[in-house]
């Protein structure tokens, strides 16, 4: 059996693992990367990338239906569903070389394509090899959670790992789960010609601001997506042609079923207990420095048990590299934005209004700027939405946006909150006209407007100065 000694062993070649491996090897560390599945992990192959490609195809189809606002005759698009999936596959293929085994071996990483299993606190068994490392990083990601619904095992239930392989358009797609994944796939498939029903156990988009989530959900309903809230899926049974889901007092028949009801960390094959790594149902139990109960072993991304975002995994990588390579104290403390990439998009950074009121009470000010006030939005006939700004003691503490390109707009606020900037900084920005980010500047300015324009002291001072100035 081959014995490989190294400085760092990274387990998992998704976003977090690849970022750790690339950063560490380029700074001089010996790195072994272990991956049994596809390089690039869930994000490239079954998550962020294919879902956004599918959403883009749906957006193109919808633009043809709604062109009348621009004086262009609207038409019902002819959709070749298999060709749409070819577009998805081409998108993955275009990005794949950046995450490939060849690229990482070119950087100097030793890549082992097999399952890894801990056999001691310092050893990982990988096929016929044993990797002995000074430090390990668990970056194994997560897998779709299949809830214990009676009858679910009797039908072919799709997940994000399998839905992108469909070459024939679902006649009626039933989605169990009203989170971002379920909502994104609902809009994409509806726009590509499928009938879609979403079953949400409580509310759809429960982690987002309900005022803004309602704007997006109304849009989906207007496009023909049926959203059933407050009705948990209680049973599934096969039919001669498709399946039926019982949810509350309803029985919903469909041709295909997508389960988007959450995810679980992919740790079972790793045997973390053999390495003295404590885990919970959410993932590896880590501290703010992302170290596990075994101080030699870190966890990043979904495996670390926090929010499941690709960009969070990439941020985690920067945190652990600082600690592993330089021995410097480093903690994961950044505010992490999240986005639902529908049309309109829904984005959030920091506290929602409800969270901010709980923390700041009467000191909280909430400012709202409608997207319809944007000249750019008017020009593009895309005026649905809202920028909602939470302010405490003159500083932004949270921002919620539902708007076209909200995912791009939230970047300004991510920088503002990360740097501790005052609202006056955002209000004083000079932004190109016309852009949607003028809405963010306007929201910041709305905090100061009453203090300036409705202030008797300011008005009196200006009148006095006008008499005195030469």
Automatic annotation (TrEMBL):
Q: Broadest EC class?
A: oxidoreductase
Domain Pyridine nucleotide-disulphide oxidoreductase dimerisation, residue spans: 336-443
The record's section on Gene3D superfamilies has: 3.30.390.30, FAD/NAD(P)-binding domain
Name the cofactor(s) required for activity, per the record. Answer: FAD
Q: Where are the transmembrane segments?
A: none
Check the record and name the PANTHER family matching this protein. MERCURIC REDUCTASE
The record's cofactor note says: Binds 1 FAD per subunit.
Q: Which Enzyme Commission number(s) are on file for it?
A: 1.16.1.1
Q: Which UniProt keywords apply?
A: Disulfide bond, FAD, Flavoprotein, NAD, NADP, Nucleotide-binding, Oxidoreductase, Redox-active center
Which protein is depicted?
Mercuric reductase protein
Gene this chain is encoded by: merA1
The disulfide bridges present are 43-48
All residue ranges annotated as the FAD/NAD(P)-binding domain in the record: 7-316
* Keyword Nucleotide-binding among UniProt keywords: yes
Q: Does the keyword NADP apply?
A: yes
Recorded hits in Pfam families, A to Z, give: Pyr_redox_2, Pyr_redox_dim
Q: Which SUPFAM superfamilies match?
A: FAD/NAD(P)-binding domain (SSF51905), FAD/NAD-linked reductases, dimerisation (C-terminal) domain (SSF55424)
> Where is NAD(+) annotated to bind?
177-184, 262
Where, in this chain's numbering, is FAD bound?
52, 116, 140-142, 302
Q: Name one GO molecular function term.
A: oxidoreductase activity, acting on a sulfur group of donors, NAD(P) as acceptor
Q: Belongs to which family?
A: Belongs to the class-I pyridine nucleotide-disulfide oxidoreductase family.
Tell me which InterPro entries the record gives. FAD/NAD-bd_sf (IPR036188), FAD/NAD-binding_dom (IPR023753), FAD/NAD-linked_Rdtase_dimer_sf (IPR016156), Pyr_nuc-diS_OxRdtase (IPR001100), Pyr_nucl-diS_OxRdtase_dimer (IPR004099), Pyr_OxRdtase_I_AS (IPR012999)
Native organism is Cereibacter sphaeroides (strain ATCC 17023 / DSM 158 / JCM 6121 / CCUG 31486 / LMG 2827 / NBRC 12203 / NCIMB 8253 / ATH 2.4.1.) (Rhodobacter sphaeroides)
């Amino acid at each position: 059996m081959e014995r490989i000694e190294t400085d760092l062993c990274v387990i998992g070649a998704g976003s977090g693992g690849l970022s750790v491996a690339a950063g560490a090897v380029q700074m001089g560390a010996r790195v072994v990367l272990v991956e049994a599945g596809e390089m690039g992990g869930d994000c490239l192959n079954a998550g962020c990338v294919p879902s956004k490609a599918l959403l883009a195809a749906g957006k193109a189809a919808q633009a043809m239906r709604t062109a009348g606002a621009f004086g262009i005759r609207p038409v019902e698009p002819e959709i070749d569903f298999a060709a749409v999936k070819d577009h998805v596959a081409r998108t993955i293929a275009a990005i794949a070389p950046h995450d490939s085994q060849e690229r990482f071996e070119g950087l100097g990483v030793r890549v082992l394509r097999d399952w890894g299993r801990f056999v001691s606190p310092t050893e990982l068994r990988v096929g016929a090899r044993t990797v002995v490392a000074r430090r390990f990083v668990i970056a194994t990601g997560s897998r779709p959670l299949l809830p214990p619904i009676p009858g679910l095992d009797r039908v072919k239930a799709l997940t994000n790992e399998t839905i992108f392989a469909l070459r024939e358009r679902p006649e009626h797609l039933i989605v169990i789960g009203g989170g971002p994944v379920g909502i994104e796939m609902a809009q994409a498939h509806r726009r590509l010609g499928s009938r879609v029903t979403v079953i949400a156990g409580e509310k759809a988009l429960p982690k987002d601001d309900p005022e803004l989530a309602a704007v997006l959900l109304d849009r989906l309903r207007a496009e023909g997506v049926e959203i059933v809230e407050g009705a948990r899926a209680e049973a599934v049974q096969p039919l001669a042609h498709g399946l039926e889901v019982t949810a509350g007092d309803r029985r919903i028949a469909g041709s295909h079923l997508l389960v988007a009801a959450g995810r679980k960390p992919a740790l079972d094959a790793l045997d973390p207990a053999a390495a003295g790594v404590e885990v919970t149902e959410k993932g590896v139990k880590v501290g703010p420095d992302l170290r596990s109960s075994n101080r030699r072993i870190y966890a990043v991304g979904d495996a670390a048990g926090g929010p499941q975002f690709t960009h969070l995994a990439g941020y985690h990588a920067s945190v652990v590299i600082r600690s592993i390579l330089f021995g410097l104290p480093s903690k994961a403390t950044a505010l992490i934005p999240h986005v639902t990439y529908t049309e309109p998009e829904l984005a959030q950074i920091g506290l929602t209004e409800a969270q901010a009121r709980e923390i700041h009470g009467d000191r909280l000010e909430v400012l709202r700027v409608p997207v319809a006030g944007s000249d750019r939005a008017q020009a593009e006939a895309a005026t649905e939405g809202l920028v909602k700004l939470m302010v405490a003691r003159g500083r932004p503490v949270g921002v919620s946006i539902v708007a076209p390109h909200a995912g791009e707009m939230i970047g300004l606020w991510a920088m503002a909150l990360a740097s501790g900037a005052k609202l006056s900084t955002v209000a004083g920005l000079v932004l190109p006209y016309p852009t949607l980010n003028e809405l963010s500047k306007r929201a910041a300015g709305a905090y100061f407007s009453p203090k300036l324009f409705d202030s008797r002291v300011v008005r009196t001072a200006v009148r006095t100065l006008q008499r005195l100035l030469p």
